[in-house]
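TICKET #2291
ISSUE: user wants both folds in one file
ATTACHMENT 1:
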Amino acid sequence: MNHWLDQFFGLSHHQTTVRQEVLAGLTTFFTMAYIVAVNPAILANAGMPTDASVTATILTAIFGTLLMGLYAKRPFAIGPYMGENAFIAYTVVRVLGYSWQSALGAVLLAGILFILLTIFRLRRWMVDAIPPALRYSYAAGIGLFLAFVGLNQTGIVALGAPGAPVRPGHLTSASVLLSIFGFLLMTVLTIRRFPAAILTGVLGTAIVAFVTRVAPAPSAWIGRPPSLAPVFFKFDLHSLFTWGFFPVVLTIFVIAFVDTMGTLIGVSARAGFLDKEGNLPQIERPMMADALATTFAALIGTTTSGAYIESATGVEAGGRSGLTAVITALCFVVALFFAPFISAIPPQAYGPALIFVGLLMLAPITRIHFDDLTELVPAFGVIVLMTFTYNVGIGMTAGFVLYPFCKVVAGRAKEIRPALWALTVLSLLFFIFYPYT
């Protein structure tokens, strides 16, 4: 058995072992398993049934991660993206007023476009045109956005009184104190380098919530996976043919391919997969796995999916081959049967995870050149507009407009690649046709 695994996954070539890959796969699962609770909780704000969303989330992770392990043979896990799910729930549905079925239609279209772009090798050409300053600002902006969502979910921040957009929540209430406890627990576990800090924080806080009756306990802990019927093949394509929906499609498309490329390159750099030019050999394979996972996700009823940055924890644990991803996928299979418990996890438990993940996503901001205004102004525009407009798409497209503007004004237009000009035009169309409310 070990000999077959060695041959199929190239364990000897990557200087790894079956035991090392299993441990790495478990580590990746425990650091990203919070998505099983958090993704359905976010999508519930769009009106999507929580139980069915749990099943869709897990099946998407299983499908995409197995594809990454068996086809691309890389130690990257795939799951529904944080950020994109929030954009669909809070912006597309709650602010713009579209149905979640229409949002899934946009995700499906994005997945099909990704497949075509990957086949013709155009997706990498487009992503390579996005300058590093914007890439780093996306991570920081989405991080602050998620943190703000988490602060609202937990009640730490509430809607403001007249004259102020927000105000402190009831900071001495049992539910808010429990949320603060959850955040501090994740902080302590992470500082102590506990490999499953976020998941442990979510589970530990949930149990305390059940025991103290801050939240109702689950009716069961283990059971059959909930039916997919309420969300399966429920996507709606009618909105795709309206100009008002164009900004939604553009945003989902842009966020997804930027997230994937950033994760693939970032984690590959830590794993030592990049060549001398900084490129990932056979990058089309993991990109195709990501494209197929996004298409699959829309079909079965969840949002854009792709390679998870938490895969870096498995790489740190020694994962170097697709076997790591296969082990992670098998863990998600087991998670299918704990859906009753996962669905009962309250916002006091998963809200701190949103805040903590947002905190972790701020790290790339240190790589922005603060002494170069042609880099800093577009990055600043991305970060503040993502956060303060409560709209990820506004921030991203503003960056595509501000970056060429600053470079042209500085007489440095040669630094702008042709594909970025195309994204600038699309972004201007975004603002022209955006369905302002």
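ATTACHMENT 2:
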Amino acid sequence: MEYKNYIATVEFDDDAMIFHGEVINTSDVITFQGAAAEELRQAFVDSVEDYLAFCAARGEEPERPFSGRFVLRIDPALHRRLYVKARQSKKSLNALIAETLEKQV
């Protein structure tokens, strides 16, 4: 499920006979639950809106789902080989790595 770029996963609890979900693309905890699809969807939307309102009331910026930046630690020798490969391909190191990662997902 997705709402305002927040993405959630949903699982079914067979014992409680209820669906529960969690937003997975922030480090802040945003959860919701519902007994049926429409109820679950509305609970998701409400939870995201509650989160945004809570942040606003505290004067804090809500955590936005993924900026597109992340730190990657690799062996210096691999770093060098990637850099050389990028230069040989007339690409930036970032472009080479982004293309390589895109092929994997």
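RESOLUTION: both attachments delivered.
EXTRA DETAIL ON ATTACHMENT 2: The helical segments are 37-58, 76-88, 93-104.
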